[in-house]
Amino acid sequence: MKTAFSTVACMGVSWQTVLSGAVRAGMDAVEIRMDDDGRIFGLPDTELDTVAQAFCKAGVQISDIGSGIRFADYDAAVVKRARQCVDQAAQLGARGVRVFPGSFVRRFSDPTPHNVAAMARFLREAADYAADKGVEIWIETHNEFSTGAAMRPLLLQAGRGSVKVIWDLIHPIEQGEMPEQTLTYLGDSIAHIHVKDGRKTQDPDQIDFLYTRLGEGELPLRDTLRMLGKSGYTGYYSLKWENAWRPEIRGLYSSLDALLADWNTFLQSVENR
């Protein structure tokens, strides 16, 4: 299994700290969550070559950059922003740029205004630009497009091979779709896996689960990862530890080293069955 983690777990730290932690933990890759102002580790783009060279020398891949781009319609300004992210990803040697589809909602009763045809247009334009740079656009299973059933029509309308999917394992389950169903819908479109765990709340209208340590929630994580391995998936399994904005898991680990040690232990429990 190819291992990775998202820098959501350690927002605000230097790239040197992230890289040294990845090396100590034996991670194969890191996915970089962009700063809110669109920077990578707070750096100007002129310094990204230095970051790329250091990661390459250490043998740690930068799998993708996680942009904060959300799209529910077509907007030329958002296309321009996506192109900027693609340029940054290409400079870093990253394969993908993550984008969010749909509307950020927390309850099933919330309205979810979106225009699938316009969203597909955005994806086509962003993906065509990305393909020329050797980069892909990765859509995360999120919001009203959390399930494979919802994501599949958008992929088909986009009609671009360089549009791939980050399957965040918790989000389809939050909306009632089980992993074997998601895999059937998304199949070869899956480029990357986000691993989390959690459990339902007592409020039936709330979409979000409460997050937990891996193995302490309700997700069939081990079975799902084994299923992915058997399916022929060869991408990264990336820990998405969202302590940056999930208070229920904030403070559970004293350091990045401790978090990644537990991540490795969990993965070994998957592989050793």
What gyration radius follows from the Cα positions, in whole Å?
A: 18 Å
Number of helices: 9
- Provide the low-confidence segments as ranges: none
In the residues, how many domains can be counted?
Answer: 1
Sheet with the most strands, sense and barrel status: 8 strands, parallel, barrel
Q: Provide the residue-averaged pLDDT.
A: 96
| Total strand segments | 10
CATH superfamily: Divalent-metal-dependent TIM barrel enzymes
Structural class: alpha/beta
**Overall form:** globular
- Give me the strand/helix succession: EHEHEHEHEHEHHEEEHEH
Distance between the termini: 14 Å
- The proportion of strand residues reads 15-25%
Q: What portion of residues is helical?
A: 25-40%
Q: Output the strand order for the largest sheet.
A: 1-2-3-4-5-6-7-10
The CATH architecture name reads: Alpha-Beta Barrel
Give structural notes.
The structure is a single chain. With 273 residues, the protein is an alpha/beta fold. The longest helix has 17 residues, at 76-92. Helix 3 (76-92) packs parallel to helix 4 and helix 5 packs parallel to helix 7 (179-186). It has an 8-stranded parallel beta barrel, surrounded by 5 helices. Strands 8-9 form a two-stranded antiparallel ribbon. The chain has helices at 15-25, 48-58, 76-92, 116-132, 148-158, 170-174, 179-186, 221-231, 256-271, and strands at residues 2-6, 29-33, 61-71, 96-101, 136-140, 163-168, 190-195, 198-199, 210-211, 236-239. The chain has a single domain (2-271), classed as TIM Barrel (Alpha-Beta Barrel).
